[in-house]
Design brief:
Arc Repressor Mutant, subunit A, ATP binding, Homeodomain-like_sf, two-stranded antiparallel sheet, transcription, about 50% helix, 3 domains, mainly alpha, Sigma-54 factor interaction domain-containing protein, 11 helices
């Protein structure tokens, strides 16, 4: 706005677009933008000029805009929640990023980055994160994508003591999401679900018993040979935690 354009406007002030002149602006959740604002952005994208509030002259701006959305923008157009002209104007070079569950290879580097950065920010002196914890993260379905991964990592760091290694038992998943991950959103065979739950129960019991197989067998109420057979069948090792 310009000085004197409204009460309290005691000096000229540049807006975000003008401040970013010669650079880049990232606008997230563009699908939630009101139609009126979409129209104004469309006008700017076409002309590369703005007029400050209270001003009489147009100001030329050279800025690159990057938009992001979690919802399908074409669907919003069909529902009347996005202007078609605006959609086609911002859709010059679309990049589709798959959900985290479809790019398992990204989970470990992202998790280790969050463990390092959040741990340093919170002043926690941790020994790192175990391979078992990484595998547990890779097994999860991540309905909340990267933001959920960051939340789970932060929660684990809060729960962990200094000078300890983050293990799978420190990863406190939300119970509802844990069930969703265990059973999946699609129908699965009952034997498959039983095997998955049994393997997890055996692994958790062994970890709780410090991998004393005799103690774990007694706790689960099965014979020692039966436990050994199940460990072989499920390929359970200490690194499976």
């Amino acid at each position: 706005h310009v000085k004197g354009s409204f009460t309290g406007a005691v000096a000229n002030k540049k807006g975000l677009l003008e401040e970013a002149d010669g650079g880049t602006i990232f606008l997230d959740e563009i699908g939630k933008t009101p139609l009126q604002l979409q129209g104004k952005l469309l006008q700017f994208l076409d002309s590369k000029r703005i007029r400050p509030v209270g001003g009489n002259e147009m100001v030329s701006i050279d800025v690159r805009l990057i938009f992001a959305s979690k919802v399908d923008l074409l669907t919003l157009c069909n529902e009347g929640r996005m202007l078609e002209d605006f959609y086609f104007r911002i859709n010059d070079f679309p990049l589709t990023i798959p959900p985290l569950r479809d790019r398992k290879e990204d989970i470990e580097p992202l998790a280790r980055h969050f463990f390092d950065s959040i741990g340093e920010e919170m002043g926690k002196k941790l020994l790192g994160v175990s391979d078992g914890a990484i595998r547990r993260l890779e097994e999860y379905a991540w309905p909340g994508n990267v933001r959920e991964l960051e939340k789970i990592v932060k929660r684990a760091i809060i729960l962990a003591d200094d000078n300890t290694l983050i293990g799978p038992d420190t990863l406190a998943f939300d119970m509802d999401m844990e069930k969703r991950e265990a059973f999946g959103n699609e129908a699965r065979s009952l034997p498959g679900m039983i095997r998955e739950l049994e393997k997890r129960a055996i692994t958790d019991t062994l970890a709780r018993c410090s991998w004393n197989r005799s103690a774990a067998a007694r706790e689960m109420g099965i014979s020692y040979p039966t436990l050994l057979k199940k460990i072989r069948d499920y390929h359970i090792t200490e690194s499976s935690e």
